Predict the 3D structure of the following.
Amino acid sequence: MRRAVPSINRVVDAYNAISVEYALPIGGEDLDAYRGPARLVRATGDEPFDVVAAGEPAVEHPEPGEVVWRDDEGVTCRRWNWRQCVRTRITEDTKNALFLLERLDPYPLDRLEAAGAELASRLREISPDVRIATRLIQW
């Protein structure tokens, strides 16, 4: 049974659709809400991760050793790009965004690049004046 992805807003819906279409983890972050640089790390387990639980603001903590994205204030996304925090989520008011497309071998690099190109195309449809820069980080 296929689960429907809920609609959030046009930008989030665009990258969620590409994530599903390409079977690729994609996260989107509001850069203006960041405190310091984004970095991919293994969590210690005491970092704050702000969420909404039962309709109320709440703070969770990642499991020690869990792979997370974080900034100087706390965890911005857990389990690679699967669960995003409230503070840096993309809203209708977002002006500067960062999209992270994550691939591990054996996922083909050309498929990753195609997903990035498709995301850029969809963002241009939503906002024709958008400025897009890409960077491939490998290690």
